[in-house]
Amino acid sequence: MKKDFERELDAVIAQMQVALEEERVENPEFYAQYPSYIATEADKEDMKAAVRRWKLPEEYVYFLKHFVPERVGWSTDDYISLEIYGARDLVKGQWGYAYNPVTDKDITDWPASYLVIASDEGDPYCIDLARGDTTVYTAEHGTGSWDFSVACDNLIEFLHSALIPRGYEDWDVHEQPAYKYAEIHLTGEGADKIKTLLFVKKTFSCDVAQAKSLLGELPLRVFKGIETAATAVETKLKSIGADYEKQPISQKDFLSAE
Fold first, then answer.
1. pTM of the full predicted structure?
2. CA 206 to CA 214: how far, in whole Å?
3. Which residues contact 206 (CB under 8 A, 6 or more apart)?
4. For residues 78-99, b (16+ Cβ closer than 10 Å) or e, as one string?
5. Is the dihedral of CA 28, 32, 86, 248 positive or negative?
6. What is the pLDDT of residues 13-71, one digit of tens each?
7. Nearest CA to 221 among 195, 257, 168, 252?
């Protein structure tokens, strides 16, 4: 049986995935050029390296196992471009704060028990490993000394803070909307096979030969995500006359890598 913090982390990571997907739908050209995503299964070697190097809180270990960001930044009223590190980037995340990679030496004015878990344009966000909890601290960089203060009471609150839309001053960070998810499968090429072929080519960023091969494996899943974001895909499939099926899926199915 999952622990409460595991369920809460699953939920907030799902919301982070949904937020990225909504941005991809709203700005397709930008995200085609600068793709970003969050996977949910960390590399085993990355995890081994992290837990071997630091004594991490159980909650944070679970987070690292299930939060695998690729070129993800969060921009809100509080953050310019917040980068939250996954297990793969955690060691490099300490560079310039706790460790100088040029001299290969620890930086002496850095609190030895502080682990940088995120940064926003140089401002570090840390947990204190000496405490064993996930209270998140931050300080402004470039002032000559580190003056830390509490940013969030725990990791889950910190993650929710990255999702607060601009202008939402009274947003409840613990509010978790009931998202609905769906899959769309291409089931037939329809009347215009050329348009369907080009749709598959664009959807999977492949060449014509690969697109033809995929069309030979119908039904073919062409969408998995938040239900409201499925509208654009449905509209396109209808416009080209392709045959498809849409079905609801659970949050667990949405998070699945399959």
1. 0.69
2. 10
3. 200, 214
4. ebeebbbbbbbebbebbebbbb
5. positive
6. 988 988 888 777 777 777 777 788 888 899 999 999 999 999 999 999 999 999 999 99
7. 257
